[in-house]
Specification:
The protein has 222 residues and is mostly helical. It is built from 4 helices and no strands.
């Protein structure tokens, strides 16, 4: 059962409430005695009647006073039962209030937890949105450059061109080396030919000198 919170009152208020509950000054008719006071008066009247009956020896007044006192007691007990029923109803209402208050507190806590969860979801959604925006910015930046397949194809084409140029360079180098060898051979042949021509010229000059000397000798002999 939920705990019922007590209402704080000061000493004067507590004394006033206690007095009103005991004397019923709040419910008694104007000018009428409170139940406790009436019960006390009936009891005093009964005691006085007993004393008078003891003196007179009749007993009728004492019996009437006794019946009046018993009726007042029964009425007082009836009122007390009614007050207990009211108090029990008030206690049940307080319990219901405490239960309803606990339920409201539970709903408040649940609402707070739900708000905290929604806040967490909102933060997550904001983070996801930020990531998407960053991804979109990177995607736009990447679209400014050639695609990977295009870059790969371009690299393959460049590699093929480089290989072809290397092949052509090797072929050109081979041709150049061959031309160098052929030119060196040609120079060697030219040098040999020049040597042979020089030897032939020298031989022809020697022959011409010999003929000139022979002709000179023949002329002197004549």
């Amino acid at each position: 059962m939920a705990e019922v919170k007590k209402v704080s009152v000061n000493t004067d208020e507590e004394a006033l409430i206690k007095k009103r509950l005991l004397t019923q000054t709040t419910t008694a008719r104007p000018g009428a005695d409170p139940p406790v006071k009436k019960l006390t008066k009936k009891y005093v009247a009964y005691v006085n009647a007993l004393a008078e009956d003891d003196a007179n020896g009749d007993g009728a007044d004492a019996e009437r006073a006794r019946e009046a006192w018993l009726k007042e007691i029964a009425l007082y007990e009836f009122n007390m039962g009614r007050y207990r029923a009211v108090a029990s109803a008030n206690a049940r209402e307080m319990e219901q209030y405490a239960s309803a208050s606990a339920a409201v507190d539970g709903e408040v806590r649940g609402t707070k937890d739900e708000i905290a969860e929604l806040k967490t979801d909102l933060d997550g959604a904001r983070l996801d949105r930020q990531h998407k925006e960053e991804y979109e910015a990177l995607r736009r930046l990447c679209t400014q450059f050639p695609s990977r397949s295009g870059t790969t194809a371009r690299l393959a084409s460049l590699e093929a061109e480089i290989a072809e140029l290397e092949t052509e360079s090797e072929a050109t180098a081979s041709k150049l080396d061959l031309r160098k060898k052929q030119f060196a051979l040609l120079l060697h042949l030219v040098n040999e030919l020049q040597g042979e021509l020089a030897e032939e010229a020298a031989e022809e000059a020697a022959v011409a000198q010999q003929q000139a000397a022979h002709e000179l000798e023949e002329g002197e002999m004549e």
